[in-house]
Design a protein that fits this description.
single chain, alpha+beta, 4-stranded mixed β-sheet, globular
């Protein structure tokens, strides 16, 4: 069984992707309710969670939002759920649900496929500052 923090939503992200790192830092900035924890998909724990929830290898090129014991979301549905949970102005992002999931995911996949070319790729995963270290799972 996975040892995950109770009552927290886990965001699994590509730790080498500059765009993904920017998205993580954005969520950290606006997570006023301290509801999210983060883990790189390349880490042992990230891989264990992905295996535990049974996500296909073809969907790993995606952000994953995992709510232990409740549900998981990936691709555009994960992004919309994160926006919804951030609340406030970001809740309006859920208006994109009127676009069919298949169409949203086509756009998501296009961005995911090109993210390294557009935003670059790091040699190592994000290393959080000491102040943020408690937000990242190992």
């Amino acid at each position: 069984m996975l040892d995950l923090p109770k009552g927290k939503k886990i965001i699994i992200f590509d730790g080498y992707c500059n765009f993904c790192e920017s998205a993580v830092l954005f969520v950290l900035k606006y997570d006023k309710k301290d509801q999210f924890r983060f883990v790189a998909s390349q880490s042992e724990l990230g891989q264990s969670i992905i295996k535990h929830i049974g996500i296909s290898d073809k969907n790993i090129d995606s952000v994953i939002l995992y709510q232990p014991g409740v549900a998981y979301y990936y691709k555009s549905n994960a992004a919309l759920q994160i926006a919804k949970q951030l609340g406030g102005f970001f809740h309006f992002g859920t208006l994109f649900r009127i676009i069919p999931t298949a169409l949203r995911n086509m756009l998501y996949d296009y961005i995911a496929k090109n993210r390294y070319r557009w935003y670059g790729k790091k040699e190592s995963c994000l290393i959080p500052t000491p102040e943020l270290a408690s937000k990242f799972l190992q």
